[in-house]
């Protein structure tokens, strides 16, 4: 089914989406979306929502299950505290993506802004994944407590760094893979660059194939450069900070 | 290096050897390795340096043979360089660490509640005896409409009362009249006292369950703090306020869905401006499950919400939560009382919050740096008076309810808070004291001998949820009786009539400036 979002307040639009999901609609296409916030916020189930136009902040916040495909760019706060499901963005996306994300996947074809993947978590089989095809701003993976963050730095002609500074600062769980070079100065405190092992390659292969399939990218073009792996040097980066 | 800066211990445990029967209860009760039994000598010894002064051992000693004495008073008397100052420096010289503590500030900040007195009726209006006359403590928290429209029904009432049954006290107004205005979501409190945020992790499951059970029994609410909600506590959902804080621990749709209200935690009175930090020692298997972090890793809550850098951003999160909960639940925003609290609160209310919670400098915590706990923020009384006044001046007081926290110790504090402008209060330390806490301030060690702020199963068993809930119910029952007595004394029969009614309060021993901030007259001044 289609919903025309032209001139529609987010509350009305999101109510229509929720009603449609409740009715059991499996494919919902939104037309003329123009900055409406909270699309997919708190929606559960397995519906697929396609967005034409640019959705507003907090796309897919608290979402638990559905798939959202954005045919253009996205703004800030995508996948905020998302629990499950998948968001695929065919353009660039803004700041604070995947804040406190608990599960599901977020694929962004282009660049991403500041503080992406901040405080992602994981528990047992619930492992959130963010893959960005382009570059990222500062504080990528800040406070990261779990999950997988992958930065591909594709289509980057200049020898620019993939990520900004304070990379993974305060990280105490999870793993970050970055395609291309990282300088020591970019790293936040308590993070280490380590060699990839066979298990890492398996994870990368699986996730990147899915990413490339969803976004029509040649997988080979991704694996033509080596990856760097970032892990926290301690589960307790601030354990020795206090006098008891 | 031979020389080590000394750490002067705080307590000395004295044992009357003639009375001691070597039952070793004290050895088993002490969780700080301060007490041990020497079989060879058949005697119990103490390592005084480990004693935290929690009084678990002497409470359980069957022969009352233990006395815990404070030491440190034997330092050379000095009002400036007292034992507190000396010990702090020694600890830091030894470790290079930030001084950590638990509970609310123990510094002698002015407690304004103790400088406020309450009015009573004499001659000109009758006082009311709550034992024999109806007395209403019911409180609704949430946004109230600017105006209401009432519709007179020409058709019969959809749910007519059975014949012969009156309308009074049924809370449904007259027959034939209904409210046309659609009200914003409200939570209903039988008493204007809720349990403040304490996370599962900071306190253990048994204590969480006790709070939940007591809240259910008393028709009020407890608050999850930022620890997520254990599945086994979902059944208390309608008495649960769930918190969304900067770490977003345990926040998902079920968590939001089972709750009665959602609270965005911006700040905490004990540590304004800084984040939370549950030490890895407290992150057990079960805690890691609700928080979704690895066992033994630190649970870090960032200082700010990184999606909130402005009032507009706060509005975004408030509405993200309202969207996620279908506009069915009030959203509260909790801030620490700071200098500009009134303006901030106005912004919070305009951002769409249904409840504003204020936590003052005496507010408690499971762990906070000493310097921040004791020196950052302002007393909750002053913030409350200012926030209430500001919202009134701006004509938006009805848009949100105000809840105050941070040092409510008894029912008189509650009465004063409500007359100063609060809709309800949060209590936490009072609740923990009711179940055994002696405010030893060692919560951050996770070894609480009273079984409260520990996740060690051996220690946590010391709190039985049913028995602890009974104590909490007793406390709230006692306070509600006292509140009713004080209301009756003022000739009021509903807490609503006292709300923001500062004319019924007077200041004692306060400066003109303090009285102005509190909006109070001095004792002795008439109407």
Features:
A: alpha/beta; Pectate Lyase C-like; 2 domains; eleven-stranded mixed sheet; 12 strands; 15% helix; B: 527 residues; Alpha-Beta Plaits; TIM Barrel; 3 domains; three-stranded mixed sheet; globular
Structure overview:
The complex is a heterodimer of chains A (244) and B (527). Chain A is α/β, with parallel strands linked by helices and 244 residues long. Chain A has helices at residues 10-23, 198-215, 219-222, and strands spanning 2-4, 27-34, 48-54, 64-70, 84-89, 105-108, 129-132, 145-151, 173-179, 191-194, 227-232, 242-243. Chain A has two domains: 1-72; 76-244, Pectate Lyase C-like (3 Solenoid). Helices cover 15% and strands 27% of the residues of chain A. In chain A, strands 1-2-3-4-5-6-7-8-9-11-10 form an eleven-stranded mixed beta sheet, sandwiched between helices. The mean pLDDT of chain A is 93. With 527 residues, chain B is an alpha/beta fold. Chain B folds into three domains: 11-97, Alpha-Beta Plaits (2-Layer Sandwich); 150-182, no CATH class; 187-522, TIM Barrel, CATH 3.20.20. Helix content of chain B is 28%, strand content 16%. In chain B, β13, α5 (253-258) and β14 (261-265) form a beta-alpha-beta unit. In chain B, α8 crosses α10 (380-393). The radius of gyration of chain B is 25 Å and the shape is globular. The termini of chain B are far apart. At the A-B interface, α1 and β12 of A face α3, β5, α6 and α7 of B. β12 of chain A pairs parallel with β5 of chain B, so a sheet runs across the interface.
- Poorly predicted runs of chain B are none
Radius of gyration of chain B: 25 Å
Would you state the CATH class of the largest domain in chain A? Mainly Beta
Overall shape of chain A: it is: globular
Order of helices and strands of chain A: EHEEEEEEEEEHHEE
Instruction: Give the strand order, joined by hyphens, for the main sheet of chain A.
Output: 1-2-3-4-5-6-7-8-9-11-10
Question: What's this model, at a glance?
Answer:
The complex is a heterodimer of chains A (244) and B (527). Chain A is an alpha/beta fold and 244 residues long.
